[in-house]
Amino acid sequence: MNKIAVLYDAGQAVLSTFDLDEVLQRILAIARDYFHLRNVAIVLLDKESQELYVRSQIGWDQGQDKARLALGQGITGAAALKKQPVYAPDVTQDARYFCSAKSTRSELAIPLMVQDEVVGVLDCQSDRVDHFDSETIDLLTLFSTQASMALQNARLYSLEQQRARQLQAINAIAQQTTAVLDLEELLRRVCQLIQEAFRVSHVSLFLREDHDLVLRAHHGTLTPRIPQGGRFAATQKPWSSILADSCTSMELERDLNDAPGTKFFAESASRMCIPLISFGQTLGVLALDSAKTDAFRDGDQQSLESVADICATAIQNAHYVDRVKQLAYLDGLTGIFNRRFFELRIMEEIERARRGCLGMAVIMADIDQFKRLNDEFGHVLGDEVLRQVSSLFHQQLRKIDVVCRYGGEEFGILVTQVNAEQALGVADKLRKMVEEWPFPGVPRTVTISAGAAAFPEHGTTRDELVRAADSALYAAKQAGRNRVCLGPLARRQAASS
Q1: Does residue 349 fall inside a structural domain?
Q2: Mean pLDDT for all residues in the chain
Q3: Cα(238)–Cα(202) distance, rounded to whole angstroms?
Q4: Residue 351: is it exposed, middle or buried by C-beta count within 10 angstroms (0-12/13-18/19+)?
Q5: Which of 158, 176, 205 is the last residue of a domain?
Q6: How far is CA 173 from CA 26, 177, 228, in A?
């Protein structure tokens, strides 16, 4: 969870003050401490001279922070010119390297961008060769968006004092969305917060999925004409121009009426659509609808684009957290779920079976004489057998069922909406499939033994069901392997019968 803490701490540093110097120092300190960096700097772009200059730094050699670099010069200049991260794993082998500290051995430069425009570079340096792996680069890339928001928010504050209410709303939205890591909850909250803070009639969030935009959440007072989850081709107007140009569009009622299928709310008389951009990637569109004609002014655009940037970063963070969670629940060797996920889901399935009286079962399966197989043919082939057995289980079970690697060569399977007899049939189907499968490189038949236990006959708790399935698996092994058995009835069931 330390990775999530990095993103959260960075968000708090950005949002706790509008003083640019204080924000930058906090960001640099977090980058140095969390990513173990010797030198880190934020370099800004002077638009007039098109040169980069050091705005704030930690660890640079004395006097080096006074230098100015042209676009394309040095690792930082290359990142600003390309609008993408540039990594030099060994600076002594990179002709572009500009020496800011003699201790530097590897350097990563990530452009700071606002609405696809480079405003500076987050420059990270280490005294170790090839210090930055791909995961660290991804985290620092997300981290750099927080610095971009700091610059944008500070500039908005200095340029638009009269918009204090909206700036406070931006801060409140960002603080609340930074702490929300569940994507669905985040999208709902974003819509509600923006609708209330900016006093518009309705707020919608469309996210990109393949070649479509999908309405994932909305909140407000207008009457929807489309269902949540509705899909729209990203190539149709107005989406095509918004996504292609990465620019905000403002439409009046006549524009909405002229484009069939794009007036999503019955009373909508004007609309502003803002692309959700996180580090150059367009994630979707934030749409604000009003029942008033010409409700949106040019002066609103900059503040709302800042909100859209905050939302895009929060959405990207939520996506990243989802990926981290998925990895935490996957077995690295087989690619199926692991025991941690089994323990999570078995409690959910027992509770669902208890409420709905639909039944569920636990199947514990084990590859017969797996140690002997490893001894005869080696662990590489043994691992491949594990992967193929996992794949067979995954293919043969329904989508609502769950197969997990419980440990070693043992598998835990949760089968929903079945009784004991049906669960035994599922186990035997899997047994036959494995027995008949030609495992490449294994000149003999591979078999499994399995035990099944159903709710509520064999138990009504996690421990009772797993114990019963384990007992059945042991009985199958004792009876000669390559067979399936049903667990012993729970004591209360045995007594009543």
Answers
A1: yes
A2: 85
A3: 18
A4: exposed
A5: 158
A6: 20, 6, 23
Q: To which H or E segment does residue 300 belong?
A: helix 298-328
Domain span holding position 59? 2-158
For residue 158, which phi and psi values (nearest 5 degrees)? -75, -30
Give the whole-angstrom CA distance, residue 29 versus residue 18: 17
Tally of domains in the chain: 3
Q: What's the DSSP call for residue 265?
A: B
**Integer Cα distance of 69 and 67 in angstroms:** 7
Helix (H, G, I), strand (E, B) or coil at 238: coil
- What mean pLDDT is predicted for residues 337-356? 89
Q: For 308-409, where are the E strands, in sequence order?
A: 337-338, 360-367, 402-407
Q: Which tokens hold the place of 248?
A: 């905000």
What is the domain-level CATH number for residue 474?
3.30.70.270
Read off the tokens for 419: 């009784």
Separation between Cα atoms, residue 310 and residue 312, nearest integer Å? 5
Q: Which two tokens stand for residue 164?
A: 């204090």
Considering the domain architecture, whether residues 231 and 117 belong to the same structural domain is answered as no
* Residue 17, pLDDT score: 66
Contact yes or no for 409/370 (Cβ under 8 A): yes
For 406-433, the pLDDT digits (tens) are: 989 999 999 998 999 999 999 999 999 9
Q: pTM of the full predicted structure?
A: 0.43
- Gap between the terminal Cα atoms of the chain: 49
How far apart CA 372 and CA 333 sit, in angstroms, is: 20
